[in-house]
Amino acid sequence: MPDNSNSTPTDTWDVVVIGGAPPGENVAQYATQGSDRTAVIIEKELVGGECSFWACMPSKALLRPISVLDNARNLPGVQSLVGDHSLDNAAVLRRRDEIVHHHDDTSQVDWATGVGIDVVRGHARLAGERTVEVTAADGSVRTIHARLAVVLDTGTTATVPPIPGLREARPWISRDATNMHEIPRRIAIIGGGVVACEAATWLAGMGVQVTIIGSAPKLLARNEEFAGDLVADNFRAKGMTVHLNARVDAVSRPQVNDAGEGLIHGGEVTVTFGDSSVTVDEVLVAAGRTPASRDIGLETIGSVAEAAAAHRGFVTVDKHFGVEGVDGDWLYAIGDLNGKALLTHMGKYQARICGAVIAARAEGRDVQTPWTTDSGDDVVPQVTFTDPEVASVGLTEAAARAAGLTVRGVEYDLSWLAGTSLQRDNYVGRAKIVVDEDTHALLGATFVGPDVSDLLHAATVAIVGKVTLEQLWHAVPSYPTVSEIWLRLLETYFNPPSS
């Protein structure tokens, strides 16, 4: 990581961004583009953040070869070519390393400086209104001021629950799993959410014996119930062991070493849950995320620290992503830190709005516009790149009913489509839409199956646009494609099967 930034001569910028993940990059750009305003990104690790180096990019680099091989094994004409060959794990890891640029963020810094955004290295803390103190690697402290705005984009870190013996065992967290350099023979994964299920997919695909220990009744419990069922069924069919409704009581690892990121951290580990236990070579904790808000100086700004503590550490914001309880329209929080949606694409969406708000306020323009106001928390598209994929947006049927809405859920088996039968043999999948019975508009959609991520944006557009089912009837899907699922769901809604 080259130190190519602390020599910047000024100590005052118009916009100061704490955190260089994609939302931080985007907000700096949107707040300054087309103007003479200045911006600086302060980053203590790598510019590009968790997504570029430890989450989205490396995880998808590991998952894609597994998906390609699985499709090939289920497509006659190609099937005989791959046979029972396994992945070339070394090649997969080399490509992963290339995609994350071997943890060199030079290209990200070059992009920032190329569009006029400065970069300063160090740990940043608020030190009063529009004031930030930056501690560099050598311990020196620099005070930086913002004329217009300070934007917090410090993200989250992996949560390690207070399970007896767990922290002492030096478990893997998501960063180790995505950047593994040593592949364990056996692994136990504590958790049953997105990170746990994606990691289980690539680890099993690389030949690891996987045991999942999830505390919820289903995998991917925030999705429609059939999503977790289909993923769990496929996991078990591929030799994984899945324990649900299981609470880990203790972890024991007699021999612990100082191995680095992605290396096995010691000898065998025993994980005990209820009346059961499993002994493995490594344990991966995928039990949620903790907001990185403890050491960023919130206590120097009114009651912000107390408010964050009341929200599990998340910094609460308004519809313009201004931090609540702070006067003067100068402090903002975007991305995972505000807890609205812990997804890179949603953080970048927030950054576009926040940057436009900062620009509008600087130029005396109205901020109450569609471009500068968050549309709400319900329309959040997400793809979980498991085998099979899970793509969802909007409300589940249970969540819609809990909100007091009158809804109807409609499901259809994706394997019945001509498009999926052409795509591959042995296709297993399901789709569901949630319909507001008062308006006939979509509230939610879920697709489970190979490559269903391609269906998600159409559903997102329909929900954001409040398109009615009567209007969707005239959006004719091409034949024979998987998009024909839309026609089948509409037919099922308007002509439900007789009981």
TrEMBL record:
Coiled coil: none annotated. This is Dihydrolipoamide dehydrogenase. GO terms for biological process: 2-oxoglutarate metabolic process. SUPFAM superfamilies: FAD/NAD(P)-binding domain, FAD/NAD-linked reductases, dimerisation (C-terminal) domain. Binds 1 FAD per subunit. The keyword Flavoprotein applies. Residues 14-345 form the FAD/NAD(P)-binding domain. Residues 380-486 form the Pyridine nucleotide-disulphide oxidoreductase dimerisation domain. Disulfide bonds join C51-C56. FAD binds at K60, D336.
